[in-house]
Amino acid sequence: MFSQTVEYALRAVVFLADRAPTTGTTDDIAAATLVPKPYLVKVLQGLARAGIVQTQRGVGGGVSLVKTPAELTILEVVNAVEPLQRIRTCPLGLAAHGVKLCPLHRRMDEALAHVEDAFRSTTLAEVLAEPTTSTPLCNIPGGRRG
Amino acid sequence: MFSQTVEYALRAVVFLADRAPTTGTTDDIAAATLVPKPYLVKVLQGLARAGIVQTQRGVGGGVSLVKTPAELTILEVVNAVEPLQRIRTCPLGLAAHGVKLCPLHRRMDEALAHVEDAFRSTTLAEVLAEPTTSTPLCNIPGGRRG
DNA sequence: CCTAAACAAGATGTCAATATCCACTTTAAT
DNA sequence: ATTAAAGTGGATATTGACATCTTGTTTAGG
């Protein structure tokens, strides 16, 4: 349902949010998130182009969030790497049929809308602040759950 | 978000539900749903294996629903061709971390759960019965909306 | 200036989803 | 029996997501 790339982007952003406003190197992020580093680099470049993260080259450089975790929503991250595609016109694409969705596609789009809403109303800070009773599940060295 | 195959399967099933319990040939279905026929055939074979549709070979044969539209849910169709994959363990896959999800993946899974619930609680009959004020958007010749 | 750390970017490889093609089997009707 | 409609199943493109490789650019610090 959610692509690998979205999953990877979210992991990276959660990691960065956890140590915000400090920067992390791509090596740090790859190690913590278990994302293949060469691919992680591409994902991070996409996040940088979208203005989600900023990068600093050279010795002591790294990647950091542009916004604070409290200002950044899951939806922004998802849309940065792979825009959540709502159904806006009937996929059958019959021009004569106008823009209103048939009942089937209206239902499917409603499901998408729910996901979109849930993601829009959740900030990274909320994700990090959530009380967790279980053992750590995100591999953040030294993090609250790691 | 939803694959092409799921979209195609749903179109085909909606078409069949609209003319249930009459059968339709793959040519009929392909023409109405605008699904490439050779691929539609594969999708229908999957639906047949999953027990969603039944097929009849030979002259006068075709495809029809096994259940009535009132008994068949969108979720059954979706799961038949591409099971909706809930997140059951943290994708980081760290064995030592048990089975409870971290806050990030719990949120993602909640979104999936909402989609699953919406699909489970919607029958094909409900989709077809829905009042529609717009021009027809599913290309069902002679159908209520076509 | 020189070096090593660290990100950038384009080229390439891999694989599964999507889509098509073709030879075969089943079946109703004549 | 013969024929033509109609589904079956395996082999074969095609495409884009996922992943990797290699070379280049930026930058802090000595």
Question: Can you give keywords for this protein?
Answer:
homodimer; 146 residues; mainly alpha; Arc Repressor Mutant, subunit A; two-stranded antiparallel ribbon; 5% strand; elongated; disordered C terminus; DNA-binding
CATH top level of chain A is Mainly Alpha
Please outline the major beta sheet of chain A. 2 strands, antiparallel
The largest chain-to-chain contact, stated as pair and per-chain residue counts, equals:
A-B, 48 and 48 residues
Total number of helices of chain A = 6
Multimeric status of the protein: homodimer
Helix content of chain A: 40-55%
Order of helices and strands of chain A: HHHEEHHH
| CATH fourth-tier homologous superfamily of chain A | Winged helix-like DNA-binding domain superfamily/Winged helix DNA-binding domain
CATH topology of chain A: Arc Repressor Mutant, subunit A
Record field, number of beta strands of chain A: 2
Q: What structural class results from the helix and strand content of chain A?
A: mainly alpha
Whole-number count of domains of chain A: 1
Distance between the termini of chain A: 27 Å
Q: What integer is the average pLDDT of chain A?
A: 85
